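=== How it folds ===
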Amino acid sequence: MKAYRAGIILLLFAALLIPATLAAGITITADQTDYYFGLDETAAITLPVSNTYSHDVDGTLRFTTVEQLQNTGTVMTSTKNRVYTTTLPTGNSNLNISAGTSDVPKSVKIQVAFQYTDASPVQVTLPEIIVHFVQDPSQYAKPPASQVTSTSGAASSAFGSSSVQIVQQSVSAQQQAGRDSSASSSSQSAQSELQNSQMSQDTAALKEQLQREAAQKEKNQQEFNERLAADPLVRQVNETLAADGFSRETATANPTAGNEGTFSMAYRNAAGDRVNLQGAMSGGTVPSVTEQSVAAINVTAPLTANATYQGFTQQLTERAFQMNQTFMNVTLSGATVNITYLSDKGIPGYVNATVDNGNVTQVSLAMEQPEINYLIIGCIAALAIVIAFCAWIVYRRLKARKKVLPPAVIPPLPAPVPVDYRKDALRLLADAEAAFTRREYREAYGLAGRAARLFLSYHLGDRRELTNAELAPVLAASGHTGQVAGIMALLERCSDVAFAKGMPEAGEFSAMIQQIRAMVNGT
């Protein structure tokens, strides 16, 4: 009876360890609470977003900046709300925001919130972050990890529309310079009148400054929109989508200057399918754009006509896979294409391709293994614990009746299996490509760098995985002096993106994967 009760208790304890299914929602994260930028440097910040819904989520994004301007006798607080519609794709993605630039040291408070509807209004509000414009950002040591995160919760109120609010507050003479108890009342009165006159002049100057900034911002917005409409790449993508039956539904631009900034556009066809377009303008031109859609879109004519690509799509179709999502990084000279397929059991498959100047330079097929069912594993583990406990009870009872048997001879350990570092490095590259396809860019660059380090450590070193710093002298001593700089630059680039010090680029990542794969294969 005691063994039975103990078994029931263990079974209940194991059931508590089985993970519960989490409700779907949206999470917005900031890597830190304080960001430091140099003077005249664009304060661009990337916020990772996780959408655990099985579909894209349409909603409203509110981007608020709070800035304080102060002169003698006057403090003015400028609050600017920018409200616009946007779509967050399912899975992992990024929100790119900018606090502009400044030629003088100052701090700007930033608030980001996203509101959408899921049975009832839902809101994700990121805790306040602060952007500091300083003379030398390198003097400010980065603090320990201070990541802030916000997840979906009940919406308190609607966002309203974009607005600019200026609050003026007067500061008394006593607050500015302290009270002089020995001064006569007539001197205090004269000082007060002088201060009021100065306060009025300062207020007028601050208002004039804000008006100039507002006029400059409007000018930048107009110039940015004109350049965007005339950009060759944007026009080419717009014409291609129009040929597929998609028309532009919304367009959002966030310029930091007339020829700098980010933008996003949403397209829809008659069937209700959507295509999301994102990009950035630099120096008056758009070097590349990203297209993302769950619908079938034109993946460039050369790729469509490629025999290998056609064979992969036919192979997936015969295995009951259906197209789930298309992601393309498009330039004027070509495109990097990542297409995700799903089987009827939810197993993903990926077709990755690169098109350059009308030629398909790379096309591959990757398929993942079925996901582990942790619920079944948890139940099996709980059952195994109960059986093991019962067996232990039986053993204890039998041990009291029988003599103790001599201990069994422990068989010798098998000889260690040699490490196939080339195979392991190629496996890490395949995992990196799959992570990039899932838009897990930091993990993708980290896996790519690890694959290169693993190969070089085993091929040239003492058969243990080395760090970037440890690899430099090994490469120099190996006689590959002409390649040391290029290999170290590749490893440092992978580390920068993996630790959120750099931005991912699809074309660059594909070239890195090809370079590392060629190095591992010895070609």
